[in-house]
Write the C-alpha cells for this entry.
Amino acid sequence: MGLSAYLMLSAALFCIGLFGTMTRRNTVGILLGIELMLNAVNINFVAFSRFRGSEVGMVFTLFAICITVAEVALGLAIVILLFRSRRTATADHIDWLKG
Amino acid sequence: MTLEVVAFWAFAVVLIGSALAVVLGKNLFHSVLWLALALVSTAGVFLTLDAEFLAAVQVLLYAGGVITVVVFAIVVTERLVGEKLSHTSRRVVVSGAVSAALLALIVRAISRSPLQLPKPALTGDMTREIGTSLLTRFVLPFELLAILLVVGLLAASYFARPEE
C-alpha cells in the first residue's frame, strides 16, 4: 500500500472523530470523539515513520499513546467530579464560567 | 493482491465502520465497545506498517486500559444519577458539512502532493530501534513521561476521592 492510502484512511478517521466531538452532548461521548482523532494522528505518525525508514515517528507515537491514557484518566475523573456536584454529564449544562 | 493489501483494506473497512458506529450510535455503552473495536483495528493497521511493538502497546494501553476506565466511569456515573445517561447528538447537519469539507480538503491535498514514494525495505528490527532511541536520544522525554504519568495518577485519584 502506498503512503497516500494510509493518509486518506487517517483523514477519514479524523473527520469522523471531529464530527463526533462536535455533535455529542454527553462529555463522555465528546471524549470518545477526541480518542478517534488522536488515533488518526497516530496512524499518520507511524505511516510517515515507516515510509521514511526511521523509527523516530514510532517513538513519538509511543509518547502520544501514553499521554492520551493520562488525558483520558484525568478527563473521566473530572466527569465523575462534575457528576457529584451537578448531577449532569451534558457539556451544555457545565457553564459556571459563562460571562 | 498481496496479503498486505488485503489486510490493509480489511482493517481500514473495520476501522471506518466502527468509528462511524462510535459517533452515530444512540447507546453510550455500545459506543465505547465500538471504540474498542476501532482501537484494535488501528493496531491491525500498525501491523501492516511493520510496527509490531506499537500494535501491542495500542492493544494493551488503549483497548485494555482506556476502555476499562471509560466503562468504569459510565457505570459509576449511572449509579450516581440512578438513570441511563442520555447520548443524543445535535447540530448534525452543520457538523457533518464541516467534517466532510475538511475531509475533501485533506484528500485533495494528499492526491495533489507527490507522495508516491516506495516503501523502503526494513533495515533490521524496528522494535529494537525504538528501544535503543527511547533510551538514548529520547531519554529525557521518556523520563518526563514517567513524571507525567505519576502526576496524572495522583491528580485522578485526588479528583475522584470520596467526599468528606
In short: Residues 124-164 of chain B form one domain. Chain B has six helices and no strands. Chain B touches chain A through 85 residues (CB under 8 Å). The mean pLDDT of chain B is 85.
